[in-house]
Write a structure and sequence with these properties.
Length: 509
């Protein structure tokens, strides 16, 4: 690293939301690492329900944790100093430097009060990172042309100005209007910010690249900046997503209309695992490893009648446990889950899903809203009280009655859960002898631990009751190795289509 040239920070700004900034940032973190640099990701403010916990127990957006993993470094709170976790259409929990500081409605948050204090915190986080890493791969949020938010913006061009970053505009050609969105995004900047934009990446191209050669030249002519690359739509490379809108697994009903995806419950030596698609589902990356497991057919569902084809039903984490529990009761999903339990199917709850499986959930401090108490599903003899202090930590543990292997995961939750029948029958045990979760039997259990399904031995434990139905020829994969392979594949693909020599010339002082 000592012999590497210092590079300007790079900001990937967008013509809109979901144009692919995060995935390109992940690729560049990997590429810079491969080229001998020591990069680090940075996103001043992120809005996401999918989060992660640093080694020192602080919460950040999952995208920055993924980018840090691609860069080969531990993630830390400075990489995402402000995280907004939506709790409804109008309110979000504000997490500052890894710790929640309260709930804000959108109107109050986007007004000017308190913004300069947050800006100072964001700048200080960037400064700490830039002293230790090079280059800083920055990511904007949404569109850089939201004129009504410009005065309160913490994450886009004002942050680029502070960092003296070179800005690359990412435009999504798949949604159409790439010329207008790129040109408009640049022309709506003031002169200083317009001059800071040094290139364009056209992302999510489908089809024959040669058909866009004239378009590429036209885009350069009209925008006045070079097109550094046209990146194809990469549906064959799997990187963990940060937004539940990007959940791509079809439901059982959707599968019936897709010729290339087999319907569930059809045998073939695989088990059917259905994840309840809660309205406020969070940390859905808990299930990425299952999606790659050849013994499993995985799908999401929000339809009660679809649970009949499941072998295993998973209640996932949620940012609004009581609201989602109410939805389970009102939608008929709760009754369908209880029926599935009586029929011998396996029910697993994770975090908020674990809380829902109990007798009651109480919220005396109204952390989640006005409801003080809500009956649970009654599947586990536990009772949860929502606490004002959030638990955030990485964990190591062993499975109940099994001391052979140390597993890894992390916790992010507000509740405290106790047994209604005396001693907790823990699902896992920590080094200090304490336990987590509740194990009622091999078909009914819950845990607070996110990432537990990334551990192959726990998945084997979950599938064990169905061993006689799983084809013996299925070979499992090591998920951590798989993720590293995907980062390398992503880097190779982006190198193929992005002019890295021109990008390095832009970043070199």
């Amino acid at each position: 690293m000592a012999n590497m040239k210092s590079l300007h920070p790079l900001m990937l700004a967008g013509t809109g939301s979901d144009v692919g900034k995060s995935i390109i940032a992940t690729a560049l973190c990997r590429i810079f690492r491969q080229d001998g640099y020591c990069p680090a990701p940075f996103k001043a403010q992120n809005m996401a329900l999918n989060s992660y916990v640093t080694a020192d127990g602080l919460e950040i957006g999952r995208a920055q944790a993924v980018q840090a993993e691609a860069a080969g470094i531990p993630c830390e709170a400075d990489m995402n100093p402000i995280l907004l976790k939506p709790q409804s259409d109008h309110t979000s929990q504000v997490v500052l430097l890894g710790k929640p500081i309260g709930n804000k409605n959108a109107y109050d948050y986007w007004r000017h009060e308190g913004k300069e204090e947050l800006r100072k915190e964001v700048h200080a986080a960037f400064d700490r990172l830039s002293q230790r890493f090079n280059p800083i791969v920055m990511e904007g949020a949404g569109s850089i042309a939201e004129l009504n938010l410009r005065d309160t913006d913490l994450v886009n061009m004002p942050m680029a100005r502070y960092a003296d970053a070179r800005v690359i505009l990412v435009a999504d050609i798949d949604r159409g209007g790439v010329f207008a969105s790129a040109y408009g995004s640049i022309m709506l900047q003031d002169e200083e910010d317009r001059n800071r934009i040094k290139g364009i990446i056209v992302n999510k191209f489908r089809g024959d690249m040669r058909l866009f050669e004239d378009g590429r030249r036209m885009l350069e002519d009209v925008c006045g900046v070079p097109v550094l690359g046209v990146i194809p739509f990469m549906k064959d490379i799997h990187i963990e997503e940060e937004d539940s809108q990007n959940l791509t697994l079809p439901s059982p009903k959707e599968r019936e209309n897709l010729d290339n995806i087999p319907s569930l419950g059809g045998g073939r030596g695989r088990l059917t695992v259905l994840i309840i698609r809660l309205p406020y589902i969070s940390n859905f990356t808990d299930f990425d490893a299952l999606e790659r497991d050849p013994r499993i057919e995985l799908a999401y569902t929000d339809k009660a009648d679809e649970l009949k084809c499941a072998d295993i039903i998973i209640l996932p984490g949620t940012k609004s446990t009581i609201n989602d529990l109410r939805w389970l009761h009102q939608s008929g999903m709760a009754e369908a889950i209880l029926r599935a339990r009586r029929e011998g199917k396996t029910i697993l709850g994770i975090c908020g899903g674990y809380q829902m499986m109990g007798q009651t959930i109480e919220d005396p401090h109204h952390i989640e809203g006005p409801v003080s108490s809500m009956p649970g599903l009654g599947l586990l003899p536990i009772h949860t009280i929502m606490a004002q202090e959030k638990t955030t930590r990485q964990t190591t543990f062993k499975l109940r009655n099994d001391s052979s292997e140390v597993l890894k995961g992390y916790e992010i939750h507000m509740g405290r859960t106790n047994s209604t029948e005396g001693e907790m029958q823990g699902l896992v045990q920590f080094e200090d002898g304490t336990t987590d979760g509740y194990y009622r039997d091999e078909h009914c259990m819950g845990t607070y631990i996110h990432g537990i399904l990334d551990n192959q031995s726990f998945v084997d434990f979950l599938l064990r009751p169905f061993a006689d139905r799983i084809a013996s020829h299925h070979e499992t994969i090591d998920y951590q190795t798989y993720k590293q392979q995907q980062y390398d594949l992503l880097a190779d693909r982006v190198r193929q289509y992005l002019d890295m020599n021109k990008l390095y010339s832009i970043l070199t002082p």
